[in-house]
User: Which sequence fits this backbone?
């Protein structure tokens, strides 16, 4: 496995390391239990849900 | 919504040579982030371009974000004259990429792919370590967030899908 430099003087690495603290490993571990096929099915369900939320938001704004 | 599985089936059934990259590749590796489009790097051979044109002509490709009604000719000549195409189709958003930043084209990437099975078809997907490299090379803020997640996945899995 290649290891990337984590030297904090490297700007990119510092940003990436900072982002790592916010990665939700519980979600990652749930995904890793799924097959690749199931991960794509889940992605499409999530997309559908996001679209439904966007539509609901648009409706709510049009009522304001 | 983009029907990722139907797009992959269509490309595979038409023997298109391609590699899944971008957010969909991240999904294959276990990313929990939402991605909207399917990004693929395609082989720029004459025969493969012909297969792409045949495959996608069934799903009416059009330039994403372009005003409706522009004369967009979906043909072998169009693909040969261009390189990267951001398309909308009846199956959703598809980015057809001849090259990607930090990764090059199909021939430069194919040795760093893993075979994945989606909806009963086998496809080539960019391997996790190479995906991290190209995301680092792209270097946009959103890419760096993805890199953070992918590096955590690499630590967790050692790179296996």
Assistant:
């Amino acid at each position: 496995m290649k290891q990337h430099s984590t030297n904090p003087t490297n700007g990119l690495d510092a940003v990436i390391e900072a982002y790592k603290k916010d990665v939700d490993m519980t979600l990652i571990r749930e995904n890793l239990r799924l097959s690749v096929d199931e991960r794509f099915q889940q992605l499409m369900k999530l997309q559908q849900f996001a679209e439904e939320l966007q539509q609901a938001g648009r409706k709510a704004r049009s009522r304001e | 919504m983009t029907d990722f599985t139907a797009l992959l089936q269509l490309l595979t059934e038409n023997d298109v040579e391609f590699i899944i990259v971008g957010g969909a590749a991240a999904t294959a590796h276990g990313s929990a982030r939402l991605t909207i489009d399917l990004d693929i790097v395609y082989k720029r051979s004459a025969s493969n371009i012909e297969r792409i044109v045949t495959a996608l002509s069934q799903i009416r490709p059009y330039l994403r974000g372009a005003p409706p009604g522009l004369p967009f000719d979906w043909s072998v000549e169009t693909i040969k004259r261009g390189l990267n195409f951001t398309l909308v189709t009846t199956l959703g958003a598809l980015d057809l990429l001849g090259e990607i930043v930090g990764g090059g084209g199909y021939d430069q990437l194919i040795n760093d792919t893993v075979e994945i099975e989606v909806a009963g078809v086998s496809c080539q997907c960019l391997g996790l370590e190479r995906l991290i490299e190209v995301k680092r090379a792209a270097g946009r803020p959103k890419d760096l967030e993805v890199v953070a997640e992918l590096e955590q996945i690499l630590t967790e899995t050692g790179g296996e899908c």
About this structure: Chain A has one domain: 11-63. Chain A touches chain B at residues 1-2, 4, 12, 15-17, 19-20, 22-25, 27-32, 35-37, 39-41, 43-44, 46-48, 50-51 (CB under 8 Å). Residues 11-63 of chain A form one domain.
